[in-house]
Each structure stands twice: as structure tokens, then as C-alpha cells.
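Quick one before lunch.
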Amino acid sequence: FLGAVGSELGMPTYIVGGFVRDLLLNKTNFDLDIVVEGNANSFASAFKNYFDIKIVEHKEFLASSMFFHDGLRIDVATARTEFYKRPAALPEVDMSTIKKDLYRRDFSINAMAVKLNQEEFGMLIDFFGSRNDLARGTIRALHPLSFIEDPTRVLRAIRFEQRFGFEIEVRTAELLKNCVREDYLDKVAGQRLRDELNKILLEPQPLKAIRRFSTLGVIEKLFPGVVFDRQIDFAVEKYFLRRPRNIGYIGEDRVFYTLMMILLRYSSNEQVQWNIQRYGLPRNFLERLKDARENADNISRESPERPSEYHRMIKSKKAETLNFLNSQLDDERDRSFEEYLKRLKGTKLAIDGEHLKRVYGLKEGPEIREILDALYCARLDGLEIEKEDGFVKNFL
Ligand code: CTP
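Model of the cytidine-5'-triphosphate complex:
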């Protein structure tokens, strides 16, 4: 139907980019990116005559997003040639044809289109040998300035390489390394880099990508002062390969914070502050990192065994702190720490402060806190839930 609307308006209409790539790879992809040779905003308005959709226009990009009630979203853009006023800036946009539109894209595998107008419905458009690269497993930039115009493509190249088990083509790798060496990553807003990093962290094999970062010289540019030595490599490996299942909610941010803690384990305060600014980390991140480092040192010195011992030693129970600590432990400590995490997640007290006041006549004050703490530790160490009252009586 998209093609029919396009034809009605006399606009050649295509589906492009990741969708076409994934179609040829037999992978599902619900990112529907449409490109029209014509005004995308008029296209979206015409589409609205037939479907009850919400439209959000991105006027400066000559593009619209169409939202359907069932959650489906289709992005429509005007075929465009971009010109970049300066490296790493967002592009200016001009009307153009599909060929130019595809040429400005990042890699050949992402630069195919399928025509949607009825006359030529389903025709694959491949100007740049994309299909061949897809078959051979090659990530290839379409032109020499690709990385300079948009340095986040450095991270994208590595992401696609790891995701599909492809390889960055030799010349493209040279262009990539040049871009990195010449500090173009510095020109990109931290948030955009963080978004790209997050996408990598959500892939099934982030470890391989991070190692690739390190061999391509990306780590020290993204995180100045970080030396990706064996110790850090080991901790990153441990985190990604043996992420304990017990740490509960692991959102995007938590994974990012964990990685930052691991990478910045040995960095100076100034370096940590620099990264806080650059990547918009929480203001108290340095304090949290210091606490976590101290926790790690204490654990390795005092070798706790019981869950309650861990519990008393570790101040913050945030996912990133627990993940960080896990990544720093040696193998012997793993079992007891995992046990602690399991208990931490599964333990909830049956009685509360109100109960203590009502049943035992205790007054508001520090004593209640103290009893509940002691009780919680006992529960972590195995006290059954039915014995909570017995424990309190004993305590009093
Ligand atoms: N694109 C680009 N340069 C970028 C980002 C995107 O040329 N820095 C183009 C590519 O053609 C890409 C399309 O825009 O296919 C859509 O981008 P995006 O949705 O970010 O990526 P996908 O290729 O769809 O990848 P994913 O499957 O990870 O969503």
C-alpha cells in the first residue's frame, strides 16, 4: 500500500537500509524506513487519508514518522543528498534521487533498497555491490569520507561486524583507523557515542566488540587514560560471559555504568570526572566507584563467606556495583558471592517496624532499625521466615 500511495503522488517509493539487509539475511526487522523521491511530508499526509495514523514531522530533515495504533511505526524520508558543514555535525538535507540517498549511507550492506510502487514492486536496487558484500560477509564503507562525516560509524562498523560475524574490509579498516587516529571521535557529542555503545552492549557478544575496540585503538580515544590491559580484559570478560543471573533488573544504563566502572577501575579521579562529563554519568559516579573499589579490596582481603558478611561490607546494592564486584572476584570467591546475590534477591522480611511497635511495644527510634537489620542478616544467612518472631524475642 505504501507503493500505491507513492504512485498516486508520482513518487518513486522504496524501503531501504537495515530492513533490506535483514530481509536478505532472513532476519526479522521491524524498522521500516521508507524513502521517496519527492516530499516525504506530503507522502505522510496522503497516507493519512487512508489510515488513521499520527504523524510527527521532522521538517528540517524532510521526513515524517507515521504511528499506527497497534504500535507500528514507519519512517518516511525524502531521498536526500546530505552535505556536512563540518565533520561530525548533523547533515544538511536536500532533495535528491534514491542513488544519491543510498550513496551517503554508512556501509554497502546498509545501502540497498527495494522498490514498492506496483509497476516494479519488489525490485532490488543495488548500485554498490551490496549483495555481494552481504554474501561474502564484508563491511565496506561507500566512500573515503564516510567515517569522517559521521565518526559514530566507527562503532557501527564494529557492531555489525560482531553481530553478523562479518569482517571489516581492509581499506575500510584503514579509513576507520585513520578517523580514530586523527581524533574525530572527539568531535561527536558524548550522548551519541553513549547511544552507540549501548547498542553494542545489548548485542549478544559485546565482549568481542570491546576487544575489537581495543585492537583498533578506539578504547583509548573514547576513554582517555584507560589502559585495556589483561586485568581489565579479564574483568570485562567475566562480566559479559558470566553475568550472574541474580542481579535482577539489568537496564541499558546499568550495563553502561558497569562497563564504565570496570574500565575506570584504575583511573585517576580527574580521568573519571572527565568521563562523567563526557558521557553524562550520574554526578556521584566517582563516589560510587570509589566505594565499589574499596568494597572489592575489602572482599579480597577479608574473604567473607556468609551472605550477611558480604551484606555488611557492601554499601550500595545497585546492579552496577554488584556487577562490578563480581567482575573483580577471583574464581574461589564466586560461589559465595553468587550465593549472597541469590539470597539478596530472594529475601524479604515478613515483619516490619509497625509490627515491632504493635507486638513488642517498641518506640520509634534507632532500635527498630537495628533489630530489622540484624533480622535481615539472619534471614540472609538462612533463618526461616516463620522464625522471625522467635529471633526478635531472643534479640530483645
Ligand atoms: N545510517 C547511516 N549512517 C549512520 C546511521 C545510519 O548511513 N550513522 C543509515 C544506514 O543505511 C542504516 C539506516 O540509516 O541502515 C538506518 O539506521 P539504523 O536504524 O540506526 O540502523 P540499522 O541498519 O537499521 O541497524 P539495526 O538493525 O541495528 O537497527
